[in-house]
Amino acid sequence: xxxxxxxxxxxxxxxxxxxxxxxxxxxxxxxxxxxxxxxxxxxxxxxxxxxxxxxxxxxxxxxxxxxxxxxxxxxxxxxxxxxxxxxxxxxxxxxxxxxxxxxxxxxxxxxxxxxxxxxxxxxxxxxxxxxxxxxxxxxxxxxxxxxxxxxxxxxxxxxxxxxxxxxxxxxxxxxxxxxxxxxxxxxxxxxxxxxxxxxxxxxxxxxxxxxxxxxxxxx
Length: 219
Hints:
alpha+beta; 4-stranded antiparallel sheet; 3-stranded antiparallel sheet; 9 strands
């Protein structure tokens, strides 16, 4: 009887040890995946184009920077390869500069569209080479559903300069500056989401200390 109890105890100990080892390996694998950089081609970080978004724009952007077509699709494939989860992609991919809600709520009737496009060009947005900070991920768990968003955060001084210039132009034109917050939006390229409702994430103010998932390197 004592031998049988000892055998059972040994099996339990071995089983617990095996589970602990599997847990350690899983955590280590997840950490390795997190630290493995995403890759982008250098040509994908330059010559982005300004575009006024249509009403059907998936992100709800009024004015945006659009990357070369292959950049966002390449990052999307890398996201799928790592996680294997089903994701949706905004089409076309874009980095919002002004949202439709911002334009309608604060700028329409005060600043002309051509003026806003000129401010973006003068800020150097079309000629800038974008510097990626990281691939970021934001997740929200709700009853019955989990929402998630993958996005690239950029270090893009021209972005902040443009939005501050818009705020200054709004004030100079006698508009209500309390209806436009130049710091409400970060320079982010939305790459993929766990669903296709991208508009509800914006405006998005990114926090690299919290949101960054993995670094991005030039290939």
